[in-house]
Amino acid sequence: MLETVVIPLLKIAVLLNAVLVSVTFLVLMERKVIAWAQSRLGPMRVGPYGILQAIVDPIKLILKEDITPVKSDRYLFTLAPIMSLVPALVVFAVVPFGPDPLYYVSDINVGLLFIVSVTSIGVYGIILGGWASNSKYPLLASLRASAQLISYEIAVTMTLVSVILTAGTLSLVEIVETQEARGVWFGFIQPVALVLVFIGGLAETNRAPFDLPEAETELTGGFHTEYSGMRFALFFLAEYANMIVISAVVVLLFFGGWLRPFPSVSWLAFLDFVPSWIWFIGKIFAFLYVFIWIRATLPRYRYDQLMGLGWKVLIPVAIGNVVLTAIMKVLF
Amino acid sequence: MGEALLFWPLSVLILGLGVMVVSAQSAVHSVVFLVINFLLVAVLYVTLNAEFIAVIQVLVYAGGIVVLYLFVVMLVNLKKEPERFADPRRLARSGLVLSGLVLALIVVAAVSSVLRNSGEGAVSGELGSSTPFVSGNTEQLGWVLYTSYLVPFELVSMLLLVAMVGAIVLAKRHL
Question: Which of A8, A10, A65, B61 has the fewest CB atoms within 10 Å around its CB?
Fold first, then answer.
């Protein structure tokens, strides 16, 4: 009873709270980093250096009025934000924060595919949200979003095949253990795959420079134009939770997950005194910083450029990478 | 016992959702019911210890194909009925014939598989013998697919390629 029910439930509770709290602070981090990139101060009023802004913002969103447009499809309008957030949180069930079973909820032998398939459900939130609003800008945005997400999902999934070939397993725990055994992070063996997964991840989380589904200069607010209050907050949470998921996947596959830097160099062994989950979370936040940095630096793509990049560059390169990896695997 | 406890409620839910898919007023609603239906089928696969199939079911059907359905349903004007099937009685009759044929096919398949397995007393006859070297769900599936069922597998992939090329040719007049 204790082993099968109580401990997993406790783990899930801790994990969900940790993810949601990280999301609120990630929003603050984004505002701060972009402000610094633009020579501003960012939020400074609430708490020292505006740190408490992360707590005040969610309270504001909860207290705001929750409006459902009269002409909208009420059921789907309610369902869409839920369908967007739930997959983003479910994915964390297979993300390992350390080698010990204490640090993950479950290690299923198709872990990586589980992440890919569950995140692919999240697109329904965006499509249905845009359609159910019964308004032209959200509809246009949701059409853009579905085309974009499907295109980039193909590229990312094809790229993951080459990583799976290198690791020889689909279990996330075993992928990291393979990197430990070989003494090298897969980012150095598969640099092309790393770049492809990262670009695809930017596109799948609708982040700049691929944020066309919510391009505020063309589509007012994108697919969540008609949403307000907590339902808008759910979309917001989903986007940031997905960012954490993508960073976690990139870290697990290419940067050794919970391993310390240079796992094969023995005189750096003192770094092992830092717990594994701190390395993992630190690496995740390094990648989240890159996400924000890119948003502050790059302008948005035009829509035809976006589709051209996805279909004519990323997918052919991904297929080529798979073929090359397979040949190397057979030869060596 | 545990499997049966999950199997019956799940089957009822899956069939009920299937009925809702065809009876929903709005086409978008039926697509949403279809997604939930596919997700429940994936749960059914999990109870049968076929995690790989379950995950692929979610990835390919719920996450890929139905998104395209939704895409089309949102774009196409569904108010207009196709002219050939304007007569509802004719539509009902052809539907009845088609569903009868599918039912007959399922019954034949079920009966023949029961007859074939009753002699050996076990389901695992042909698959179990060819997979001695690998452990694990995914590996076994790959092994079976690329040894016992290599030719059908390659034929299916050829069929998909032909369909893909055909779709591109139909959609794009000037290549």
Answer: A65
